[in-house]
TrEMBL record, chains A, B:
MF annotations from Gene Ontology: carbohydrate binding; glycosyltransferase activity; hydrolase activity, hydrolyzing O-glycosyl compounds
Active site (catalytic residues): 488
Organism of this sequence: Mucilaginibacter mali
Family: Belongs to the glycosyl hydrolase 65 family.
Name of the protein in its database record: Glycoside hydrolase family 65 protein
């Protein structure tokens, strides 16, 4: 745990230069616009510890899988997001001496991420070893308004020396992934060029053949006057640069405006990338830095209007929740249904930038409420388009007849993970993907989605479950053997309650949707059944038989759902009785000891209760919560939010707040000592859920929003913006009650503490507790 | 499956050169003498497919572990046997044209492994692309009589050309392991020298610092006359050679005698290796090739006298069983308690040449009966000396108080394996190690071993089990959770019957031995208890409580021991109903499908019944055999022998023979298409067991040998030599009955078909069936 980020409502601030936290800051101060992103690497050269990272959404590389022991069914390749060309570089030489903060005396260092307007600013004074002093201020952003571009304003002032400052803006494509399995480089150069005031490099990924052209255009002023010195171009493999020498006197400032463009063959013809990049650069340079920055602020203002959460009385919490919302918006804008949400977004390489069940289970609720409906729909379509590969994946494992097993980790629909206990067994992901369809339709009312896309996915998934579930002659019930639930501290268990529950629900929901569609549009229904070769009689009978005769482990004595067969055979020790020296167990214990213990990484049963809470009475929820929570170590960043929401539901406001605290500043305070690898983007959505579904008690009931809010004791009030079926409301929870402001032109009916209420268009209503 | 090896009683013969089977032959025709060994690589250069392999027993390298996903508790390093300097090389140039069978027209190729006398012979005619024809005959061996040496006689005859034959014998230490995880080379050169008629290279392993000096001394004759030409030395990194040019006419023969020595710092001071190597070479060269070969034949004759199995009426079976005995004797001679038996012996790199539970479960019975008692005792001492590391290993996994978990795979006592389901869970190996102590004492009567060494190991193991077994509050019984049994097609199961059974047996046996020792030698007992800090009251009480209240899964309906909790929840399909296209399932099915199926790699429950057969009545054995055998795919080479022995016990002679057949020619006929990696040395001991314990029905009962033989229908008779407590007998089973010949000077009492019999010293007795 670190504590160096300054508290501010709208800004993330670091003061003073500490190389030991630099990699953490590179993650925290990351920038992105959904299309591209980058870690907060310095513009000027830096020879200290750094993780260089520039990423282009959707551009990935299938790295050859590395395992110790191969198991049949492992994927040959592991698709990972690529470290792409670095466009931020601006090398500075002071009379031939390189400006490098690792080698200078640094003072007045300050880094600021302005979340309101979406830019990164950095200031410092540096004194080189020969005593030259300069002052630097640099501002940069990835444009939200023009998402193939970014810009940097880099101002350097001589404090005490007169001489030549050599300025070298560059595009450096000679990068590698830190996580490259065989130290390979993943890019080949296609072409490059330098111009009088810039240049570009076009590169192509090996194997996948994505082309990306990254270009720059720059101009330089001294004391606001353009510099006419002719830049001296330089090129190397995958690298273009240009050096401008400027004579300065003490007190004089040079400002470099560097415009960058990143164009990919996903969006443009590969053979036009070079020209288009140049044209894009000219367009944005003509606009100028200040205009681009103003557009950036406007784009972010529009985002915040729809998804800001305002917390009064707790600036630290205010900063944290905005940081989470900011990063989620930087990561995924929902405009492209080929993209998804990597667990680290654009903030690092870890987890390969790939898609996990995190998207459906944690991010979908966030985007449903804070972004246009189309955004979540695109997340659903992403999976729809990968249905064929999910069917292939299931075939590889021995299933047939259109059974679909979505991959645990993927970029393009093929499986990327290779721990057998996860790849082959953590199949509950299929359930979350089905649940997201249900959740989307419940929230948006977009029933048409089901007929057009949803049912086909649901049936593929239901077919998988119907084959994966087998008949136990011994029990005379259906069982599901050899699975790993969301609690990854158990592997290869039989009859995991969560997985069995969501599997059977998938079959029920698929049948329900199929019946509805058959009734609504028989021709369309028949066409789909023909397309997928669905044997209605036989397959429906099988689904129904499983639904009727499924076995779910249950403990009669304690009246709780049992996480899996045999869970009560374990020594039942509570987390509170674990010495602090033993935690986190995933660092302190052998894997073997973790597996044999009763300790839970994230509680499966509670995850299931969260998804299907309407099925269970409050006593059932309480009994299960009281049993599982004390055994849960929350060593997944996805764990606490579900506990916060259930604690809130059970009226335990104190603990709901405690669970919320565990993730709210996870990255800002580097709780798990791993922020340097990147930020926990997907768990940020969980933090949002803790506030809105936990403290706000928001649910959808019969097509209406319902709220059951409480105010955490430390806070004066909190408000959140929610979009729902075309209406935006702002809900404020304060000591005096619940205020709902209808920001749209349509009246809205909703439930507040279980009572039907309505708020007219443009009106604000206050409801007592 | 291949079928190219010619049938012969005493020889393994390959006729005709087929490069496609060359790597298989390199394995099959391997040579070894317990101290060193080598694959049957060609002496002359060969540019075709080959796996070069020379190995020095006990010289290993801790290769950095490669895994896809690290789990806490994995070993940092994986000790593997090293590919060592190649001393067989004799490069031949014919007027500058290299003799290379990959580039010649080859005829009359013949390879012969003479198992009776322990040498490898090869003949061929080769015609180079320019038309030069030569005939070669080469004989080589690793000396059993002088186990740091080997010798080669390489005779080359010009058929049709006159010119210069350049002969270059070499020592080439610039080798690498094919299985090197990071393509590293593992040796550094220490020193080297060339002499007029030879040279040596001394190398040191990285990290482990073993020094090995490998030297050669050669002489050359033409038509039996010594050649006086002065050799031209050549050196490269880790390489010495000398070239002799000899002018020949068509029909003339050159013979190269090459003597080799391999001396290791395990056995000599590192700084004297060079001198000692030279002295050794001079000693053996003075003896000469023919004398060495005669010594070799004599050493092997002595081995065969003690361990030959003679099968009449089935030459193929005769060849196969001798091949197994031959390879086991080449691999391990039992003279050095630092050595053990790698699953591939000296025939390949696979499995890292490390020690597995194979040694205790399969090889110990073989060596007990076929070698002096000291040999097995040394195998036991190997583990005794690694007890400290086994305790460290258990600590790493969270155990304490002297609990010992022996590694799954090891060279020096540290764990080398890194699949969590095996490394951490396949803990039954601990049981086999305890059982081997019991088996040794039962066989030899050497009770003193227990007091001196055995009990300390037994208590370390018992302590491990007493911590690994936990109390189930739910069951009110002790349970063992999260294990993998010998059936590796199940992972992380609860209450594996075999593991629980052997674990509790270990505690019982440890207590029994402790009591006996306390009664026999209280002072020694007390000293041991003090040394290991054994809390007699508390620990014994814990052992006894577990013994009394252990849970073993059992199916009441079928009255069988259940392999593990939940086994009957699986779909019960029999192997006979599996289409041939689906087998072997370990190649045809995903790991996931294998795990979820009921199919068994090798039957755990039957392994337990084999170990503890006296506990079970014949009906119990039959019920379990009849249940498990039809579900067993025997995809471990260690599986069929146990089935053969139990089938024999159940009187099912036909099936006993069928099981025997599955392993008897496993490598000779390359059943599993993997002999090119090396031979299945440890399963060869299982084949021996099938014959002696299966067909011979040999057991030890109350300190006496007991036989219950039958004669496989295809055979006219079979005999085997057995050593037992200083007495050697030859047992012959033929249609006319069981003949026991007492080859020693002491009378022996034994049981034949359950009847007490005795055979006087030097006498042969015949007993009817």
């Amino acid at each position: 745990m670190k504590d160096y980020i300054k508290i501010d409502e709208w800004r993330i601030i670091e003061e003073g230069f500490d190389p030991h936290v630099h990699k953490i800051s590179e993650s925290i101060f990351s920038l992105g616009n959904g299309r591209m992103g980058q870690r907060a690497n310095f513009e000027e050269a830096y020879s200290g510890e750094t993780l260089q990272g520039n990423y282009v959404a959707g551009v990935y590389y299938p790295d050859k899988t590395r395992v110790g022991w191969w198991k049949n069914g492992y994927p040959e390749y592991f698709a990972k997001v690529l470290n792409a060309a670095n466009w931020v570089g601006i090398d500075i030489q002071l009379d031939g001496e390189q400006l490098d903060l690792a080698k200078c005396e640094v003072s007045d260092f300050r880094r600021e991420l302005n979340m309101k307007e979406g830019y990164l600013k950095r200031n410092f004074k540096a004194k080189t070893s020969s005593g030259k002093e300069v002052e630097v201020e640099t501002t940069r952003f990835c444009s939200m308004a023009d998402d193939e571009t970014g810009a940097i304003k880099y101002k350097i002032t001589s404090v005490n020396f007169s001489g030549i400052i050599a300025i070298t803006p560059s595009i450096d494509g000679d990068v590698r992934n830190q996580d490259s399995n065989y130290d390979e480089k993943f890019w080949d150069e296609v072409s490059k060029a330098t111009w009088a005031d810039g240049g570009y490099v076009q590169m192509r990924t090996k194997k996948t053949g994505f082309d990306v052209a990254t270009g720059m255009k720059f101009n330089i002023t001294v004391d606001r006057q353009p510099v006419s010195n002719i830049p001296k171009p330089a090129t190397k493999d995958k690298y273009v640069a240009a050096t401008v020498n400027v004579q300065v006197q003490g007190g004089q400032s040079i400002t470099i405006f560097k415009y960058a463009a990143n164009l990919s063959s996903q969006n443009h013809p590969a053979d036009q990338l070079a020209d288009l990049t140049k044209a894009t650069l000219e367009r944005v340079a003509a606009k100028g830095f200040d205009t681009m920055l103003a557009e950036q602020a406007a784009a972010w203002a529009k985002k915040w209007e729809h998804n800001d959460i305002i917390i009064e009385g707790d600036i630290s919490a205010q900063q944290a929740i905005r940081f989470n919302i900011f990063q989620l918006n930087q990561t995924y804008t929902g405009e492209d249904d080929r993209l998804n949400i990597g667990p680290k977004g654009f903030t690092g390489e870890k987890y390969g930038g790939s898609t996990y069940w995190d998207t459906e289970a944690y991010c979908v609720p966030f985007y449903l409420s804070t972004a246009p409906q189309q955004v979540t729909r695109n997340l659903l379509l992403y999976r729809y388009k990968q249905l064929g590969k999910a069917i292939e994946n299931a075939k590889l494992l021995g299933f047939d007849n259109g059974a679909a097993l979505y991959p645990m980790v993927t970029m393009d629909g093929t499986e990327c993970h290779n721990e057998w206990e996860i790849t082959f067994e953590e199949i509950h992901r299929n359930g979350a993907i089905a649940f997201a369809i249900y959740n989307y339709v419940r929230y948006t009312g977009d029933e048409a989605y089901l007929g057009d896309y949803g049912l086909e996915v649901l049936l593929g998934i239901a077919r998988f479950w119907s084959q994966r579930i087998t008949w136990s002659g011994d029990r005379q019930q259906y069982v599901m053997l050899g699975v790993t639930g969301p609690n990854e501290y158990e592997n290869n268990v039989n009859n995991n309650w969560y997985t069995s529950t969501i599997a059977v629900w998938c079959m029920q929901y698929a049948l329900e949707v199929a019946n509805k569609m058959q009734a609504a549009d028989k021709a369309k229904y028949d066409a789909l059944m023909a397309k997928i070769g669905f044997d209605t009689d036989r397959e429906v009978a099988r689904f129904k038989d499983i639904i009727a005769k499924m076995y779910y482990p249950y403990d009669e004595q304690q009246q709780i759902f049992l996480q899996q067969d045999g869970y009560l055979d374990k020594e039942q020790i509570l987390v509170k009785d674990l010495p602090a020296t033993q935690r986190p167990i995933n660092q302190k214990w052998s894997w073997d000891r973790i597996l044999r213990s009763c300790f839970i990484k994230q509680a499966d049963v509670l995850q299931g209760i969260y998804f299907f809470e309407d099925r269970y009475d409050i006593d059932t929820i309480r009994r299960n919560f009281d049993f599982y929570e004390p055994r849960t170590v929350h060593e997944s960043s996805l764990s606490p939010c579900v506990h916060a929401i259930l604690a809130a539901k059970l009226g335990d406001e104190k603990r709901a707040y405690e669970f919320y605290l565990r993730t709210s500043r996870l990255d800002l305070d580097d709780y798990n000592n791993d922020t340097e690898d990147g930020c926990h983007i997907t768990s940020m959505a969980g933090t949002w859920m803790s506030v809105v579904e936990g403290f706000g008690g928001m649910r959808v009931r019969d097509g209406k929003l319902s709220f059951q809010p409480f105010l955490p004791g430390k806070w004066a009030s909190f408000s959140f913006h929610i979009g729902f079926r075309g209406i935006t409301i702002k809900v404020t929870v304060s000591k005096s009650g619940v205020t709902v402001k209808n920001l749209s032109g349509t009246d809205i009916a909703l439930l507040i503490y279980g009572k039907e209420q309505s708020v007219k268009a443009g009106v604000e209503e206050v409801f007592g507790h």
